[in-house]
Design a protein that fits this description.
- The complex is a heterodimer of chains A (375) and B (696).
- By secondary structure, chain A is α/β, with parallel strands linked by helices.
- Chain A has 2 domains: 138 residues, Orthogonal Bundle (Arc Repressor Mutant, subunit A), CATH 1.10.10.10; 217 residues, Dna Topoisomerase Vi A Subunit, Chain: A, domain 2.
- In chain A, 41% of the residues lie in helices and 17% in strands.
- Chain A has 14 helices and 17 strands.
- In chain A, the strands form 6 sheets. Chain A has a 6-stranded mixed sheet, sandwiched between helices. In chain A, strands 9-8-11 form a 3-stranded antiparallel sheet, with no helix packed on it.
- In chain A, a hairpin with a 2-residue loop joins strand 8 and strand 9.
- In chain A, helix 1 runs antiparallel to helix 2, helix 2 packs across helix 3 and helix 2 packs across helix 4.
- The N terminus of chain A is likely disordered.
- By secondary structure, chain B is α+β, with helices and mostly antiparallel strands.
- Chain B has 3 domains: 252 residues, Heat Shock Protein 90 (2-Layer Sandwich); 73 residues, Helicase, Ruva Protein, domain 3, CATH 1.10.8; 235 residues, Ribosomal Protein S5, domain 2, CATH 3.30.230.
- In chain B, 36% of the residues lie in helices and 15% in strands.
- Chain B is built from 19 helices and 16 strands.
- Classes of the chains: A alpha/beta (375), B alpha+beta (696).
């Protein structure tokens, strides 16, 4: 459904189309209400059971499963009400030609239900999934709804981009880097000039700082990014565009634990909850460089870096091993077996015990040279 | 045991060796013991063991007599119980005080020549010699109370009795001679007024109530009796008090109206004011127990008397050998030369000519054999034949159960609950004596929710206040599985919850565990019937509770939907421009339709709840007393209609069952402010709620 290309359509046309979708959805509810039928909204399900592994494309896709959200059911009554509120909020946003953060939308729709002490939304955690529901129910992308997330993640490297008309040279970003916005579609960000040969994506800001301070991107002619843990959509979309439009390999340095493996899995083939956007987010070619289970021995690390696997970690690792996209992958099966055999996990920072710049000056360059990675 | 031996045993025993006194000297000291003398020394046997119980027992005996007399004469009882504190200025440390207890009824009165016998002799009465259901049994009660008064205060009993309307009233004072078991009249005069006027002017409360025609109105007492006994006693509220006794008596006797004037320690004048008058008006008309200015009114709940009971002959299986021997002797005395064949038919119930003949045959005598000639060994044989023969159970029309409707009426006016159910079993037999068990339960409302259930017990409509745990009914309650009816019950204990359980046993002879008549003996047949009656009530309660739960759940569900419908219709209006009100109304209609049917399938245990019809008559629900849904928000106009009572199915109250009106709290605090507020409330609530009590 979601094709990232808004192409030549003007923003006005796009907004008019989105508004029509919202009005159609709500008008259907009104028609059912007045006609004495139970109002329901059909919402494509964003669950594992409705996620299909497209082996050929190497990405996760959303299936045809649709969940009804009826008003007259205690389980869904509140969500129904929230969906209607957000539909109204979004329509107003579009009409006003403004955009809003997720938090802003939450606050706009949050109030006390008349005559009660109950809030329409208690926390943003309730509000965000409702917006995602609307995205899938309307078949509209987040930017089409005029909603964006917080900036998260950073980028430096041998690339020059244009962001809303401002030219940005990513070699001159100081110690903080270019903050990755939530909307990075071609109508917002264009790649102007790129000399980098690959992208090194690290898990979090602390590690990214190490590489940036050591001018890794300069020495190795690459782009350096991080996504502050699980990378948000903006970061993933940008990585995908770098990969698809500029043909840059994406190489990931993540923790050696199930969480790190899962981050890689999301970057590579998309996530379950956003499976509908996989085609513009997933990077099937992404590579996992480390940290590997074997590194404790190969790098001669100290016992102090070991963090014991919790029961939950073990369970999670086994789940990940069973994902269809890992299940048939010998390298990954070995990697996860090795993690479980170790009985401990390691963070990227554990390499600091060797030397402060071991990771950027020895570990990554060596692995790159040997092309020692998983994909 | 031969007859001779029996006689020998009955004679005073003589000692074989007499070192200190011989038979002659002892014989000089051996003489009759008057029953009254015996009682004077053993007062505890009859319920006068302590000052507090003495007050209660006196009230109880007098009230029992009044009710029995009224019923026998076919008069709806109107009874006043007045306690006067004669030492109001005693120090606070005094353990007891002197009281004058007066009980006035509108019964048939007593003819002049019987007054001494009835009030002055122990063991004189009409009830001992017959197998008939009545409150008193032995004829000890009121004369014992009079004697207790005489012993402790030296004051005689004062009696006013008016046996005929329009005729003068006898004013008699009696002192009992404990030696002769005879009463001595110390004062005897005919007077005009009845009931005695002075009681009407006792306090502001009695004055105000009397002015409203609610207290000792002369026209209500064309005949009647007033008994006053002065005694040393103690008045105290709580369990086992006069208050409790009267409260329970009112429940078991909804056809009686009882006014109770408790003692006021301070007797300074209270000016009757507007307030008192207003309260008295409310009290005079009230259908539930009320208290105004210290005077408690237990109103009449039903307008008809219990049916008259028939006297029956003993059942052969219900007597003992000694009694059989005595009966044979009595028969011979009465019917010189009567035959055994006739004796069996006349003096027992359920013995037909054929049965009598076969019984004679079984003990080897002809049907011509005379009753007087039956020797004890033959009598013993006859006794065995009784046990073995197949006989119809005794007739049961000798019993006057309270009845389901009256039980409900009694509970309704005495217990402030939201749900009432009652059950009246058919008559059964224990040891050849017919009996009948009835039970009622009241649930919810103002009853305390986290205490053990209160069990109130009655035998022939008389409340049993002591020795609860020794009583068969208590065992029956603890052995009933209340958990089946959605109530909590610790193992082997009373259920816990806002519950009052009433058990009544009606019988021609109630088997008490002791002479003081406080607990019913634990016969299997009796306990079984009690449990069956309780189960019947419990089932109705269980059905009701499930229904109520469902109602609440639906109420909550509807509430949830209605809360959101406002938001949804607003959003729809904003997006599509549809009329907000129209959408709201349409959705509300749907919400109502859905909550009425949607959730009926499963209860919270996942069991299927069929729409069980509340078929029985034995149930009353007072929707007004149902606590609101916890956490429900009264709020916005559309949501306000979602009260759970709405979902309740109502039917018109059964005819004759008076709907419960807005009543005033019974345990009133003396605070004037509060009283004032309540009067105002009662006045404003008087109208427009005859449908308050719905019958499922």
């Amino acid at each position: 459904m979601a094709k990232g290309k808004t192409g030549t359509r003007s923003l006005k046309e796009r907004d008019a189309a989105t508004t029509k979708k919202i009005v159609d959805l709500v008008a259907d509810v009104a028609r059912k209400s007045l006609g004495g039928k139970e109002p329901k909204i059909d919402i494509p399900t964003r669950t594992k059971s409705n996620t299909i592994w497209n082996k050929k494309r190497g990405i996760l896709e959303m299936g045809d499963g649709v969940a009804e959200r009826p008003l007259f059911d205690l389980k869904t009554a509140k969500q129904f009400m929230q969906t209607m509120l957000h539909a109204s909020t979004i329509k107003d946003l579009i009409a006003a030609e403004k955009t809003s953060s997720l938090r802003g939308v939450f606050y706009k729709a949050k109030h006390t239900v008349a005559g009660t002490r109950e809030n329409t939304f208690d926390t943003q955690d309730e509000s965000d999934p409702i917006l995602e529901d609307l995205e899938v129910a309307l078949g509209a992308l987040r930017e089409e709804l005029h909603v964006f997330a917080e900036n998260r993640g950073s980028m430096v490297g041998n690339i020059t981009i244009v962001d809303k008309g401002d030219e940005i040279d990513c070699r001159r970003m100081g110690s903080g880097g270019y903050a990755l916005p939530s909307i990075v579609e071609p109508d917002v960000i264009q790649f102007k000039k790129c000399e980098a040969k690959f992208v090194l994506h690290v898990e979090k800001g602390t590690v990214w700082n190490r590489f940036n301070e050591d001018r890794f991107w300069e020495k190795h002619n690459c782009i350096l990014t991080h996504g502050a843990g699980q990378p948000p959509r903006g970061c993933r979309r940008l990585l995908q565009r770098l990969n698809q439009e500029l043909k840059l390999p994406i190489i990931c340095v993540l923790d050696n634990d199930p969480w790190g493996h899962y981050i890689y899995s999301v970057i590579k083939q998309g996530s379950i909850s956003l499976a509908f956007e996989s085609s513009r987010l997933a990077i099937p070619e992404a590579k996992f460089l480390g940290i590997r289970a074997k590194d404790f021995r190969e790098c001669g690390l100290d016992d102090a870096v070991k963090i014991e696997l919790t029961e939950n970690d073990v369970k999670r690792a086994k789940e990940i091993a069973a994902y269809p996209w890992f299940a048939g992958h010998r390298g990954w099966q070995k990697e996860i077996d090795a993690l479980l055999a170790n009985g401990f996990k390691m963070e990227v920072e554990s390499l600091i015990t060797k030397d402060i710049s071991y990771v950027s000056e020895t570990y990554v360059p060596e692995r790159l040279r040997k092309k020692d990675w998983l994909d | 045991m031969t007859a001779k031996e029996a006689v020998a045993m009955a004679e005073p025993r003589k000692k074989k060796t007499a070192p200190r006194a011989d038979a002659e000297s002892m014989a000089a000291r051996q003489r009759d013991i008057s029953v009254s003398e015996f009682f004077a020394k053993n007062r505890h046997l009859l319920g006068f063991d302590n000052p507090r119980k003495a007050v209660l027992t006196t009230v109880k005996e007098a009230v029992d007599n009044s009710l029995d007399a009224c019923e026998e004469a076919g008069i709806l009882p109107e009874i006043a119980v007045i306690l006067e504190d004669l030492e109001p200025n005693r120090p606070a440390t005094a353990k007891s005080s002197r009281y004058r207890i007066t009980v006035i009824d509108n019964g048939p009165g007593i003819v002049r020549k019987q007054v001494e016998n009835i009030f002055g002799r122990l063991l004189y009465g009409s009830k001992f010699h017959r197998l008939k259901m009545s409150r008193g049994q032995q004829g000890i009660g009121i004369s014992a109370a009079g004697m207790y008064g005489l012993i402790t205060t030296g004051r005689p009993m004062t009696i006013f009795t008016k046996p005929k309307a329009g005729q003068p009233t006898h004013h008699i004072e009696l002192a009992m001679n404990t030696k002769t078991n005879r009463a001595e009249v110390t004062f005897d005069k005919e007077v005009k007024e009845f009931p005695p006027r002075r009681f009407r002017d006792m306090s502001a409360g009695t004055k105000a109530l009397a002015e409203q025609g609610g207290f000792l109105t002369e026209s209500e007492f064309p005949t009647g009796t007033s008994v006053s006994i002065e005694l040393d006693g103690k008045y105290q509220k709580g369990r086992g008090s006069v208050d409790e006794f009267l409260e329970l008596t009112a429940i078991a006797n909804p056809h009686a109206r009882i006014v109770f004037v408790p003692p006021t320690r301070v007797t300074e004048d209270e000016e009757p004011d507007v307030l008192a008058a207003a309260e008295a008006t409310a009290a005079a008309k009230a259908t539930v127990t009320t208290e105004t200015n210290g005077v408690i009114v237990f109103p009449r709940g039903v307008q008809e008397l219990p049916p008259e009971t028939r006297e029956i002959q003993p059942h052969p299986k219900g007597i003992e050998l000694g009694i059989l021997l005595q009966m044979l002797k009595d028969y011979e005395l009465a019917e010189k030369g009567g035959t055994l064949y006739n004796f069996l038919q006349e003096r027992f119930c359920r013995v037909s000519p054929q049965t009598a003949a076969s019984m004679c045959q079984a003990i080897g005598v002809t049907s011509r054999a005379k009753a007087g000639d039956i020797e004890p060994p033959q009598a013993e044989k006859l006794y065995k034949v009784f046990q073995e023969s197949k006989l119809a159970p005794p007739p049961t029309d000798c019993l006057a159960p309270i009845g389901v409707r009256q039980l409900l009426a009694g509970m309704l006016k005495g217990v402030r609950a939201e749900f009432y159910s009652a059950s009246s079993r058919t008559a059964e037999v224990y040891r050849g004596r017919p009996f009948q068990i009835e039970a009622a339960i009241a649930f919810g409302g103002e009853l305390p929710a986290d205490e053990s259930a209160r069990v109130i017990r009655f035998a022939n409509r008389v409340p049993l206040l002591f020795q609860q745990s020794a009583c068969s009914s208590f065992k029956a309650v603890t052995e009933t599985a209340w958990k089946n009816y959605n109530l909590q019950q610790p193992r082997g204990a009373l259920p816990v919850g806002p519950l009052v359980i009433m058990i009544h046993m009606a019988s021609v002879w109630v088997p008490f565990t002791s002479e003081s008549k406080e607990a019913i003996a634990d016969y299997d047949e009796i306990r079984k019937e009690m449990k069956l009656a309780l189960m019947e009530c419990g089932r109705k309660l269980g059905t009701y509770l499930r229904k109520r739960q469902k109602m609440r759940r639906e109420g909550e569900r509807r509430d949830v939907f209605e809360r959101y419908i406002g938001e949804i219709s607003k959003a729809i209006h904003e997006v599509t421009g549809q009329d907000q009100r129209k959408v709201f109304d349409a959705l509300l209609k749907q919400a109502k339709a859905r909550t009425a049917v949607a959730d009926q399938v499963l209860d919270e245990d996942g069991k299927i709840v069929k729409d069980e019809p509340m078929d029985e008559d034995g149930v009353i629900v007072v929707p007004d007393a149902i606590a609101p849904v916890p956490g429900a928000i009264p709020a916005a106009a559309p949501a306000a209609e979602a009260s759970p009572a709405k979902g309740a199915r109502r039917r018109v109250a059964a005819e004759g069952t008076e709907p419960r009106r807005a009543a005033k709290p019974r345990k009133a605090s003396a605070a004037r402010e509060e009283l004032r507020a309540r009067v105002a409330k009662a006045a404003s609530r008087g109208k427009g709620d005859p449908g308050a009590a719905g019958l499922f």
